[in-house]
Write a structure and sequence with these properties.
218 residues; mainly alpha; 12 helices; 0% strand
Length: 218
Amino acid sequence: MNDITQQQLRTVLATPDADKRAAQWLSALQHCMQGCAIDTPLRQAAFLAQILVESSALGRLEESLNYSAPRLRQVWPQRFPTDEIAARYAHNAAALANYVYAGRMGNGDEHSGDGWRYRGRGLIQLTGRANYALFSKDMQVDALGDPDQLLQPAGAALSAGWFWRAKGLNELADQTGGADAANAFVQITKRINGGTIGLDERKAYWSRARQALGLPAV
């Protein structure tokens, strides 16, 4: 395996503070790639493209749950059918997480606090008690007991690498070296995003990552 270099990461980031971000994240990304078999340029290019969009170029490690009441009704119309219900959770991130994530993804009920405790964190936002437990077991870290590990580079990167490998995305990334490369990349996006939100931005990062890692253009 060839580790990505700081220069390569800086080139892919292409942000005003790319030097600083590349220096901050290089070691964590190298470690997660080594530990999760993201060990070829094809895999690395696809991985970088996806995590840079998911994390706003390594700048966001936690889901935003600060919604106004009207926005809550737009995002979750079934859960917030009236202004009165929405107002209880508006601009209250912890209460909102405990409500909308209750009884899902291995979480307890609304009063358990699991929704907030296991809210989305990391470069690919890991969400829910069950996912934190699986990650902890597989990677031998205590993210279940200390979920805020995923707000630090090492944990944020490793959880993304674990998710990537667990979802079979290395195998899909292997297909991005052939004639069906573009479709394989779309399938990777869908497994991460549930759809194709931000696909153009993902493709732009992917193109830059492929070039930085010495791969041909798609």
